[in-house]
Amino acid sequence: MPQMTGGAGGGPDQTQIDRALRSGSGPIVNAPPAVLVLIAILIGIQAAIQWAGKDWETWSFYAFALIPARFQGPEATTMIEGSQYWSLVTYAFLHDGWLHVLFNSIWLLIFGTPVARQFGTLRFLLIALVSTLGGAIAMLVLFWGVFIVAVGASAAVSGLLAAAIPIMFGGRAGPLSFGEFLRDRRAMIFMVIFLVMTLLSSVQWLPTFADGARIAWEAHLGGFIAGLIAYFVVSRRGVRHG
Fold it and tell me: Most buried pick, 23, 70, 135, 225, via CB within 10 A?
Protein backbone atom coordinates (compact mmCIF):
# COMPACT_ATOMS: atom_id res chain seq x y z
CA MET A 1 0.00 0.00 0.00
CA PRO A 2 1.16 3.59 -0.56
CA GLN A 3 2.95 5.15 2.40
CA MET A 4 1.37 8.27 3.89
CA THR A 5 2.89 10.90 6.15
CA GLY A 6 1.02 12.34 9.09
CA GLY A 7 -0.89 15.61 9.02
CA ALA A 8 -1.09 18.26 11.68
CA GLY A 9 -3.26 16.08 13.89
CA GLY A 10 -0.79 13.18 13.89
CA GLY A 11 -2.46 11.20 11.11
CA PRO A 12 -3.04 11.53 7.37
CA ASP A 13 -5.65 14.05 6.28
CA GLN A 14 -8.22 13.34 3.57
CA THR A 15 -6.16 15.07 0.87
CA GLN A 16 -3.17 12.85 1.60
CA ILE A 17 -5.31 9.73 1.60
CA ASP A 18 -6.89 10.63 -1.76
CA ARG A 19 -3.49 11.41 -3.28
CA ALA A 20 -2.03 8.14 -2.08
CA LEU A 21 -4.96 6.11 -3.36
CA ARG A 22 -4.75 7.75 -6.79
CA SER A 23 -1.01 7.26 -7.08
CA GLY A 24 -1.11 3.46 -6.95
CA SER A 25 2.66 3.52 -6.41
CA GLY A 26 2.83 0.78 -3.74
CA PRO A 27 3.62 -2.85 -4.56
CA ILE A 28 0.73 -5.28 -4.95
CA VAL A 29 2.36 -7.68 -2.46
CA ASN A 30 4.55 -5.90 0.06
CA ALA A 31 6.99 -8.74 0.73
CA PRO A 32 10.75 -9.13 0.20
CA PRO A 33 11.74 -10.55 -3.20
CA ALA A 34 13.39 -13.59 -1.58
CA VAL A 35 10.04 -14.66 -0.11
CA LEU A 36 8.15 -14.13 -3.36
CA VAL A 37 10.78 -15.96 -5.42
CA LEU A 38 10.74 -18.91 -3.03
CA ILE A 39 6.95 -19.11 -3.25
CA ALA A 40 7.15 -18.89 -7.04
CA ILE A 41 9.62 -21.79 -7.08
CA LEU A 42 7.35 -23.97 -4.94
CA ILE A 43 4.32 -23.23 -7.10
CA GLY A 44 6.32 -23.59 -10.31
CA ILE A 45 7.60 -27.03 -9.30
CA GLN A 46 4.08 -28.17 -8.42
CA ALA A 47 2.75 -26.86 -11.75
CA ALA A 48 5.52 -28.58 -13.70
CA ILE A 49 4.92 -31.92 -11.97
CA GLN A 50 1.17 -31.69 -12.54
CA TRP A 51 1.69 -30.82 -16.20
CA ALA A 52 4.20 -33.64 -16.72
CA GLY A 53 1.77 -36.29 -15.50
CA LYS A 54 1.56 -39.08 -12.96
CA ASP A 55 4.69 -40.90 -14.05
CA TRP A 56 6.85 -37.81 -13.51
CA GLU A 57 5.19 -37.18 -10.15
CA THR A 58 6.04 -40.73 -9.07
CA TRP A 59 9.63 -40.33 -10.28
CA SER A 60 9.98 -36.95 -8.50
CA PHE A 61 8.92 -38.49 -5.21
CA TYR A 62 11.24 -41.46 -5.83
CA ALA A 63 14.20 -39.17 -6.51
CA PHE A 64 13.66 -36.25 -4.14
CA ALA A 65 11.17 -37.08 -1.33
CA LEU A 66 12.39 -37.84 2.18
CA ILE A 67 12.15 -41.60 2.76
CA PRO A 68 13.79 -42.78 6.00
CA ALA A 69 14.17 -46.32 4.64
CA ARG A 70 16.79 -45.00 2.20
CA PHE A 71 19.26 -44.77 5.09
CA GLN A 72 19.15 -48.54 5.59
CA GLY A 73 20.88 -48.91 2.25
CA PRO A 74 19.82 -50.21 -1.19
CA GLU A 75 18.79 -53.54 0.32
CA ALA A 76 15.99 -51.77 2.21
CA THR A 77 14.47 -49.99 -0.81
CA THR A 78 15.37 -49.24 -4.39
CA MET A 79 16.77 -45.74 -4.73
CA ILE A 80 19.09 -43.48 -6.66
CA GLU A 81 22.53 -43.57 -5.06
CA GLY A 82 22.98 -40.47 -2.93
CA SER A 83 19.27 -39.59 -2.82
CA GLN A 84 19.18 -40.28 0.91
CA TYR A 85 21.37 -37.22 1.41
CA TRP A 86 20.01 -34.63 -1.00
CA SER A 87 16.44 -35.58 -0.06
CA LEU A 88 17.11 -34.06 3.39
CA VAL A 89 16.56 -30.73 1.60
CA THR A 90 14.77 -31.50 -1.67
CA TYR A 91 11.71 -32.96 0.06
CA ALA A 92 10.73 -29.41 0.98
CA PHE A 93 10.22 -28.49 -2.70
CA LEU A 94 7.64 -31.23 -3.34
CA HIS A 95 4.00 -31.17 -2.25
CA ASP A 96 1.09 -33.54 -2.14
CA GLY A 97 -1.24 -31.49 -4.33
CA TRP A 98 -2.24 -27.87 -4.83
CA LEU A 99 -3.93 -27.43 -1.46
CA HIS A 100 -0.74 -28.47 0.28
CA VAL A 101 1.53 -26.08 -1.64
CA LEU A 102 -0.92 -23.17 -1.39
CA PHE A 103 -1.25 -23.51 2.38
CA ASN A 104 2.52 -23.58 2.78
CA SER A 105 2.91 -20.62 0.43
CA ILE A 106 0.46 -18.52 2.42
CA TRP A 107 2.19 -19.24 5.73
CA LEU A 108 5.57 -18.68 4.10
CA LEU A 109 4.39 -15.25 2.95
CA ILE A 110 3.10 -14.37 6.42
CA PHE A 111 6.00 -15.55 8.56
CA GLY A 112 8.84 -15.46 6.09
CA THR A 113 8.31 -11.76 5.38
CA PRO A 114 9.34 -10.39 8.80
CA VAL A 115 12.35 -12.71 8.94
CA ALA A 116 13.57 -11.71 5.46
CA ARG A 117 13.09 -8.03 6.28
CA GLN A 118 15.01 -8.36 9.51
CA PHE A 119 17.97 -10.36 8.25
CA GLY A 120 18.11 -10.02 4.48
CA THR A 121 18.08 -12.73 1.83
CA LEU A 122 21.07 -14.90 2.79
CA ARG A 123 20.26 -15.30 6.47
CA PHE A 124 16.56 -15.74 5.70
CA LEU A 125 17.47 -18.63 3.40
CA LEU A 126 19.90 -20.00 6.01
CA ILE A 127 17.15 -20.16 8.65
CA ALA A 128 14.81 -21.82 6.14
CA LEU A 129 17.52 -24.38 5.26
CA VAL A 130 18.33 -25.19 8.89
CA SER A 131 14.61 -25.57 9.62
CA THR A 132 14.21 -27.92 6.65
CA LEU A 133 17.09 -30.05 7.93
CA GLY A 134 15.63 -29.97 11.44
CA GLY A 135 12.34 -31.34 10.15
CA ALA A 136 14.14 -34.06 8.20
CA ILE A 137 16.23 -35.09 11.20
CA ALA A 138 13.11 -35.31 13.38
CA MET A 139 11.53 -37.65 10.83
CA LEU A 140 14.66 -39.79 10.67
CA VAL A 141 14.93 -40.07 14.44
CA LEU A 142 11.32 -41.14 14.84
CA PHE A 143 10.97 -43.26 11.68
CA TRP A 144 14.45 -44.64 11.09
CA GLY A 145 14.32 -47.37 8.46
CA VAL A 146 10.56 -47.00 7.91
CA PHE A 147 9.26 -46.68 4.35
CA ILE A 148 7.23 -43.49 4.53
CA VAL A 149 7.28 -40.60 2.07
CA ALA A 150 7.56 -37.09 3.51
CA VAL A 151 7.21 -33.99 1.32
CA GLY A 152 6.42 -30.32 1.82
CA ALA A 153 7.91 -27.03 3.00
CA SER A 154 6.11 -27.19 6.34
CA ALA A 155 9.30 -27.69 8.35
CA ALA A 156 10.85 -24.59 6.78
CA VAL A 157 7.64 -22.63 7.35
CA SER A 158 7.50 -23.76 10.98
CA GLY A 159 11.10 -22.68 11.49
CA LEU A 160 10.43 -19.28 9.96
CA LEU A 161 7.36 -18.96 12.17
CA ALA A 162 9.57 -19.62 15.19
CA ALA A 163 12.11 -17.05 14.00
CA ALA A 164 9.34 -14.51 13.45
CA ILE A 165 8.11 -14.68 17.06
CA PRO A 166 10.95 -12.60 18.64
CA ILE A 167 10.61 -10.13 15.76
CA MET A 168 6.83 -9.78 15.95
CA PHE A 169 6.76 -9.31 19.72
CA GLY A 170 9.80 -7.07 19.95
CA GLY A 171 9.41 -3.38 20.74
CA ARG A 172 11.01 -0.22 19.45
CA ALA A 173 14.36 -1.44 20.74
CA GLY A 174 14.24 -4.30 18.25
CA PRO A 175 13.50 -8.04 18.38
CA LEU A 176 13.42 -9.86 21.68
CA SER A 177 16.66 -11.21 23.06
CA PHE A 178 16.71 -14.83 24.23
CA GLY A 179 16.06 -13.78 27.84
CA GLU A 180 13.30 -11.39 26.83
CA PHE A 181 11.77 -14.10 24.66
CA LEU A 182 11.55 -16.48 27.62
CA ARG A 183 9.99 -13.79 29.80
CA ASP A 184 7.55 -12.40 27.23
CA ARG A 185 4.09 -13.71 27.99
CA ARG A 186 2.72 -12.98 24.51
CA ALA A 187 5.55 -14.84 22.81
CA MET A 188 5.12 -17.82 25.12
CA ILE A 189 1.36 -17.95 24.51
CA PHE A 190 1.88 -17.76 20.75
CA MET A 191 4.45 -20.56 20.92
CA VAL A 192 2.22 -22.75 23.07
CA ILE A 193 -0.69 -22.26 20.67
CA PHE A 194 1.51 -23.36 17.76
CA LEU A 195 2.77 -26.41 19.64
CA VAL A 196 -0.75 -27.45 20.66
CA MET A 197 -2.01 -27.07 17.09
CA THR A 198 0.97 -29.09 15.85
CA LEU A 199 0.27 -31.92 18.25
CA LEU A 200 -3.45 -31.84 17.44
CA SER A 201 -2.57 -32.25 13.76
CA SER A 202 -1.49 -35.80 14.61
CA VAL A 203 -5.11 -36.75 15.35
CA GLN A 204 -6.12 -39.10 12.56
CA TRP A 205 -9.68 -37.81 12.10
CA LEU A 206 -8.49 -34.38 11.01
CA PRO A 207 -8.72 -33.63 7.25
CA THR A 208 -5.71 -34.59 5.16
CA PHE A 209 -4.44 -33.32 1.82
CA ALA A 210 -4.95 -36.63 0.02
CA ASP A 211 -6.34 -40.09 0.66
CA GLY A 212 -4.03 -42.02 2.93
CA ALA A 213 -1.82 -39.00 3.65
CA ARG A 214 -1.14 -37.68 7.12
CA ILE A 215 0.30 -34.45 8.42
CA ALA A 216 3.95 -34.91 9.37
CA TRP A 217 3.70 -33.02 12.64
CA GLU A 218 7.08 -34.42 13.64
CA ALA A 219 8.72 -32.44 10.82
CA HIS A 220 6.80 -29.32 11.87
CA LEU A 221 8.10 -29.64 15.42
CA GLY A 222 11.66 -30.38 14.31
CA GLY A 223 11.60 -27.41 11.95
CA PHE A 224 10.22 -25.11 14.65
CA ILE A 225 12.95 -26.02 17.15
CA ALA A 226 15.69 -25.76 14.53
CA GLY A 227 14.38 -22.42 13.27
CA LEU A 228 14.20 -20.94 16.75
CA ILE A 229 17.77 -22.01 17.52
CA ALA A 230 18.97 -20.73 14.13
CA TYR A 231 17.31 -17.38 14.75
CA PHE A 232 19.15 -16.74 18.01
CA VAL A 233 22.45 -17.99 16.59
CA VAL A 234 22.13 -15.76 13.52
CA SER A 235 20.92 -12.75 15.49
CA ARG A 236 24.03 -12.86 17.72
CA ARG A 237 26.10 -12.08 14.62
CA GLY A 238 24.31 -8.82 14.00
CA VAL A 239 20.93 -7.70 12.78
CA ARG A 240 20.29 -5.74 9.63
CA HIS A 241 17.92 -2.86 10.32
CA GLY A 242 16.01 -0.93 7.72
Answer: 135
